[in-house]
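can u do me a favor
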């Protein structure tokens, strides 16, 4: 004869299942909204100006201070888009950083860094990746447009298979997950989304030879129309590691690698606009480049 259900155990089981469903549904967030609601200022509030509707924000650098802000939530995998218009004119020595970081001693970090220029010279976009505290993975490109004239979309696509940096949906860099082959990959530490404008004239423009000309300041960069479609960190990495059951579309197998068209665009960028690749810097690594340099990108 079948045993009757223990009502308390059944209630706990159903509660657990319901909680799992709720957590899965809300593991992903799509945000196209308000800087004031989703981000907080972390440096020099007087140098951060937000529009009345919260949809745009500017960062300022002068000879007194730079400025920065950070997301309220942390994320583990997803896609982050930000429209940015860079500092115009003579911006030598300035650095606008837009990045994701876990802010720990052994931090993971995914960086866009826009390196200012002397008037008439092209902006340099530097990307970098830290995994378990190890960085030194810089790549630099020239952009194929003037990033000070209008807004352009800069995206980080990050899933369990790869990290893709994109400019106006054009892939400019890919870093694959080769953790199984001994290469560290950002996959355990949730990250905040941050942006900052600061004085990097010790290194940013021509290796530090061109300094900030403060008479040209204040220097201002503008950001707007951000979109975060990512797994909000709730302390349980399993929800963010799942493929699509919890809304984590970015972890589906069809996003395991670049599409054929994306590969063509990446090759175009690297052929015509790449100016520095750490994997090709034999002097820096004494003819022993990091292991990922010999592994496939897709």
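np, heres the sequence
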């Amino acid at each position: 004869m079948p045993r009757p259900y223990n009502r308390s155990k059944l209630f706990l089981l159903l509660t657990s299942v319901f909680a799992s469903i709720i957590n899965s549904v809300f593991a992903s967030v799509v945000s196209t909204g308000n800087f004031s609601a989703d981000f907080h200022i972390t440096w020099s509030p007087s140098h951060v100006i937000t529009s009345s509707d919260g949809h745009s924000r500017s960062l300022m650098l002068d000879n007194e201070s730079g400025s920065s802000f950070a997301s309220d939530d942390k994320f583990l995998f997803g896609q982050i888009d930000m429209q940015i218009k860079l500092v115009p004119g003579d911006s030598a020595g300035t650095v606008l950083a837009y990045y994701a970081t876990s802010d720990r001693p052994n931090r993971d970090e995914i960086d866009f860094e826009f390196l200012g220029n002397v008037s008439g010279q092209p902006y340099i976009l530097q990307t970098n990746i830290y995994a378990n505290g190890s960085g030194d993975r810089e790549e630099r490109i020239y952009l194929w447009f003037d990033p000070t004239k209008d807004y352009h979309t800069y995206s980080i696509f990050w899933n369990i298979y790869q990290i893709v940096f994109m400019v106006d949906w054009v892939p400019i860099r890919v870093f694959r997950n080769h953790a199984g082959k001994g290469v560290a990959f950002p996959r355990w530490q949730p990250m905040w989304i941050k942006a900052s404008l600061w004085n990097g004239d010790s290194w940013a423009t021509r290796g530090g030879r061109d300094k900030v000309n403060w008479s040209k300041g204040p220097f201002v960069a503008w950001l707007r129309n951000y979109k975060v479609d990512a797994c909000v960190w709730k302390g349980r990495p399993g929800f963010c590691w799942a493929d699509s059951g919890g809304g984590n579309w970015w972890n589906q197998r069809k996003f395991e690698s670049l599409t054929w068209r994306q590969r063509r665009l990446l090759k175009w960028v690297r052929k015509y606009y790449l100016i520095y690749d750490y994997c090709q810097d034999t002097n820096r690594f004494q003819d022993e480049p990091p292991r990922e340099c010999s592994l496939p990108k897709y």
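The two ends are 58 Å apart (CA to CA). hope that helps!!
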